[in-house]
């Protein structure tokens, strides 16, 4: 019997080639988009799951709240991990990382800036799954002068992975490090990618006997819990470490225990976050790499579902619209003994078969569009996943789901015809006879209009970000990276030499530029008195700058003056505040205000305010401008910002590079432009905007395919009416208007429903920005007009053809 069903299904689909083609193309487009989004969502949800013990690994984060100022960090004290493992049996293992930033590695006569250096405990191989190609993971990091590299680094420097015992020259002093291990490249779905791993005890200041500070937070700490241990149990042990060690440390240094802070509404806490949650649920200060956002997963999943629903709605509409063509078939089958169940199964077989054919085409579409989608989404998704064994059940489920969803209503609708009514000719299913069909058209354009509104709002927000006054001038600023490799004197001499170039107007040496992302800045507590009482502290972002910083970046002083060490030697302990800091401190006259801090040895240092700078966005516009303080940079010269004014940028770059190489030969010249760095802060939003536009276009095209089919059948059913109207003198315009009116009304209803829903969704999205554009009324007007024009163009293609047809032919056919 099933074979018979398949035969009939093939005959029916072959008989209505136009109907079949529209349905296959519509379903294939919807399924193709869905497959792309499934790949994206699968990739996002799969981060860090390559680790065998991923479900038992946690990162320890620090959360400090003092007097309405907050500091969320991904790092803790270097003592935290060892204390947990030594004292609490439920914590099986721990590993700490400390990242030094870029380091120089010699390659031949030149040096290369390598970005993926880290210092780590030897237990890294016990916590994380990092397969070692060569070497012993148990001893690879035992020697202070050892280094573990990944497969790509081994091939890059030695053209082989058999490199155990070979040496690398690292850092300015060309320290020789012996390669003791080679690991496989870390998967792309990882929250960190280390190519060079050195022993943690070689990290800066790690072995300093004076560094016994439990309140410091320079180390990423990951812990591995024992099997069967719950998250609540791990958090309880972490809280106990905080109470036992950080509480007394706070009391000794800042005269307030953890309990005292809690009573005053403040806190110093450490929270754990599961390893598999970091990529999508964490966006704190100092993340190892830029994370994504779970909102994107939700958004794209909903879009995939909506586009698939549009494709299924097309199938339902076209199937019921052409129901008159199959009414006699249903009647004869019922008279011949077919039951309703048999007919339902027959029609569902047809829809599942059509869904299967569409899936084959959808796979081809997905593979074809994947490179473009990768570029839009910033991914490296591979089509092999679609054809893997683990993905096969998903494809089978998708075929059955879409086939049953799209074919359910037509199957029940067609099988419900009464044979006596059919054979007497009482069944005539035209476009206007189905309220459900009209509702489905409204649903399609409701989705399409909602996507158009969302796209316009996202585009406008991105335009607002790019053009908003941010408090500094990012145009024509060249950023030279890695100037620390020149040393302090070499970097200063380079700046002086650059200032002699005709196109250069100023230059500043600083590690803290306002386009690096707020998560990389130094956060400190500042105190109003020398007692350093934590109850009175204010957490402020601290930028390390020089006296060229303000003029180079085009910032504005609104009170006092800039740093001037040449004229005021005491400016070594001077500070600048931003307007938000002045408001938070609650002082009317901030000039000459005294604030206190401490150095690494916990010695109290007195600072005095000499000026106030106008607020500027040093974080992305997702965050409000928080209290900020600038101190004189005395120990970090990692980058230089150079302001220039010239139309011949290529020539200037060549001159700057020559000056850089003259300072020290063999060093790589690495640079970016500040306006490009600024744009990168909003890379995720730009990707979202581009993907939204793409999906909106797909949704509208798929909806128009269904609309085209509906208009075709509506015109066919009104062939005689059109012929009579033309004979009686009706013009093409009036006939087109007659056939288009119903669809115009439906698009209007869809717009009225879509507008408030889209407004609410975009309002919620804009709430994630501290600085945002308004949702103007014209956005809805444009979205509705675009949808209406597209619908009318689609309708007109068929209605004009019907209106231009010879009425004699149409009446003769009757």
SSE layout and pairing:
Layout: H1 2-15, H2 17-45, E1 57-66, E2 69-73, H3 80-87, E3 91-98, E4 103-107, E5 110-114, E6 117-120, H4 124-127, E7 132-135, E8 146-150, H5 151-158, E9 167-170, E10 175-183, E11 196-199, E12 220-225, H6 231-254, H7 258-263, E13 267-274, H8 278-281, H9 294-321, H10 323-335, H11 340-377, H12 392-415, H13 419-423, H14 435-467, E14 477-481, H15 487-498, E15 504-509, E16 522-526, E17 538-545, H16 549-552, E18 557-560, E19 574-578, H17 579-585, E20 594-598, E21 604-613, E22 628-632, E23 639-644, H18 649-663, E24 670-673, H19 674-680, H20 683-717, H21 719-727, H22 732-766, H23 777-804, H24 807-812
Parallel strand pairs: 6-11, 8-10, 17-22, 19-21
Antiparallel strand pairs: 1-2, 1-12, 1-13, 3-6, 3-12, 4-5, 7-10, 8-11, 9-10, 14-23, 14-24, 15-23, 16-17, 18-21, 19-22, 20-21
Helix pairs in contact: 1-11, 2-9, 2-11, 2-20, 9-12, 9-14, 9-20, 11-12, 14-20, 14-22, 14-23, 15-18, 20-23, 22-23
């Amino acid at each position: 019997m099933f074979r018979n069903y398949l035969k009939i299904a093939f005959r029916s689909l072959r008989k209505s080639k136009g109907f079949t083609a529209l349905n296959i193309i519509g379903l294939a487009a919807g399924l193709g988009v869905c497959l792309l989004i499934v790949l994206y969502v699968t990739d996002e949800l799969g981060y860090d799951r390559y680790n065998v013990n991923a479900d038992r690994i946690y990162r320890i984060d620090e959360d400090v709240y003092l007097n309405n100022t907050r500091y969320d960090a991904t790092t803790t004290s270097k003592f935290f991990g060892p204390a947990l493992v030594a004292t609490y049996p439920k914590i099986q293992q721990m590993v700490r990382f400390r990242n030094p930033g870029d380091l120089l590695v010699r390659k031949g006569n030149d040096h290369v800036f390598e970005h993926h250096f880290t210092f780590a405990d030897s237990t890294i191989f016990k916590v994380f799954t990092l397969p070692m190609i060569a070497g012993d993971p148990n001893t690879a990091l035992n020697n202070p002068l050892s280094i573990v590299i990944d497969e790509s680094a081994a091939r890059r420097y030695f053209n082989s992975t058999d490199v155990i015992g070979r040496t690398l020259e690292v850092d300015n002093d060309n320290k020789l490090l012996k390669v003791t291990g080679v690991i496989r490249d870390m998967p792309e779905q990882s929250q960190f990618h280390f190519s060079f791993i050195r022993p943690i005890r070689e990290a800066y200041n790690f072995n300093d006997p004076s560094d016994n500070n439990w309140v410091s937070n320079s180390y990423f700490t990951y812990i591995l819990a024992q099997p069967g241990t719950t998250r609540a149990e791990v958090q309880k042990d972490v809280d106990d470490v905080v109470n036992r060690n950080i509480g007394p440390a706070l009391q000794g240094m800042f005269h307030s225990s953890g309990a005292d802070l809690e009573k005053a509404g403040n806190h110093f806490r450490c929270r754990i976050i599961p390893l598999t949650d970091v990529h999508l649920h964490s966006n704190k200060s100092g993340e190892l790499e830029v994370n994504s956002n779970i909102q994107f997963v939700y958004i794209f999943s909903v879009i995939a579902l909506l586009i698939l629903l549009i494709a299924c709605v097309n199938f339902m509409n076209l199937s019921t619209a052409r129901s008159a063509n199959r009414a006699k078939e249903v009647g004869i089958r019922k008279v011949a003994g077919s039951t309703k169940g048999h007919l339902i199964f027959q029609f569902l077989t047809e829809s599942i078969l059509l869904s299967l054919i569409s899936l084959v085409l959808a796979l081809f579409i997905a593979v074809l569009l994947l490179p473009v989608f990768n570029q839009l989404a910033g991914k490296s998704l591979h089509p092999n996943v679609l054809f893997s064994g683990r993905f096969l059940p998903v494809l089978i489920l998708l075929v059955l789901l879409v086939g049953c969803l799209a074919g359910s209503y037509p199957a029940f609708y067609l099988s419900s015809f009464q044979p006596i009514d059919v054979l007497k000719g009482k069944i005539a299913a035209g476009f206007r006879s189905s309220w459900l069909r009209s509702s489905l058209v409204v649903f399609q354009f409701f989705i399409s209009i909602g996507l158009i509104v969302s796209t316009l709002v996202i585009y406008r927000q991105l335009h607002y970000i790019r053009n908003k006054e941010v408090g500094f001038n990012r145009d024509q600023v060249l950023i030279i990276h890695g100037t620390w490799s020149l040393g302090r004197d070499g970097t200063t001499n380079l700046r002086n030499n650059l200032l002699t170039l005709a196109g250069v107007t100023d230059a500043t040496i600083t590690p803290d530029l306002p386009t690096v992302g707020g998560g990389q800045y130094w956060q400190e507590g500042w105190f109003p008195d020398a007692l350093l009482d934590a109850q009175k502290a204010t957490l402020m972002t601290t930028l390390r700058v020089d006296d060229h910083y303000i003029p180079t970046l085009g910032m504005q002083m609104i009170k006092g003056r800039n740093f001037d060490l040449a004229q005021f030697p005491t400016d070594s302990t001077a500070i600048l505040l931003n307007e938000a800091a002045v408001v938070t401190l609650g002082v009317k006259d901030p000039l000459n205000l005294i604030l206190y801090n401490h150095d690494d040895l916990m010695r109290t240092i007195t600072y005095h305010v000499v000026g106030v700078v106008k607020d500027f966005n040093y974080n992305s516009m997702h965050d409000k401008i928080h209290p900020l303080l600038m101190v004189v940079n005395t120990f970090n010269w990692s980058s230089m910002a150079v302001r220039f004014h010239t139309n011949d940028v290529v020539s200037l770059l060549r001159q700057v590079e020559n000056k850089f190489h003259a300072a020290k030969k063999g060093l790589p010249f690495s640079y970016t432009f500040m306006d490009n760095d600024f744009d990168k802060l909003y890379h995720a939003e730009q990707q979202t905007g581009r993907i939204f536009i793409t999906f909106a276009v797909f949704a509208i095209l798929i909806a128009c395919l269904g609309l085209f089919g509906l208009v075709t059948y509506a015109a066919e059913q009104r062939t005689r009416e059109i012929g009579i109207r033309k004979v009686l003198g009706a013009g093409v315009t009036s006939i087109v208007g007659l056939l288009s009116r119903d669809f115009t009304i439906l698009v209007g209803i869809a717009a009225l429903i879509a507008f408030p829903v889209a407004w609410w969704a975009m309002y919620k999205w804009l709430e994630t920005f501290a600085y945002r554009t308004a949702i103007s009324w014209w956005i809805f007007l444009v979205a509705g007009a675009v949808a209406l024009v597209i619908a009318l163009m689609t309708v007109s293609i068929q209605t004009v053809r019907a209106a231009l047809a010879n009425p004699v032919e149409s009446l003769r056919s009757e």
